[in-house]
Amino acid sequence: MIKWDLFQGCKGWFNMHKSINMIHHINKMKTKNHMIISIHAEKAFDKIQHPFKIETLKKIAIEGKYLKIIKPILAVTNPQLISLSVDKN
């Protein structure tokens, strides 16, 4: 499940409440194959090129399945909250 810009334009407290609800829902699920990645890098990384961000992640040992998940998130101009189903195999 991927939801791009799920809470864009909402107040901070509303985003936090929705995030907590999503975490609570995932914790109650029997299959624990979800993760939440929250990145708010709207201004911080605007001027840094995408390949540089990916190479930096590789240098700190973020690779394989997790790098494949993070790449499209960094490519979006305004990612805020994305829920992903991850196959643990």
From TrEMBL:
Q: Which domain of life is it from?
A: Eukaryota
Protein name according to UniProt: Reverse transcriptase domain-containing protein
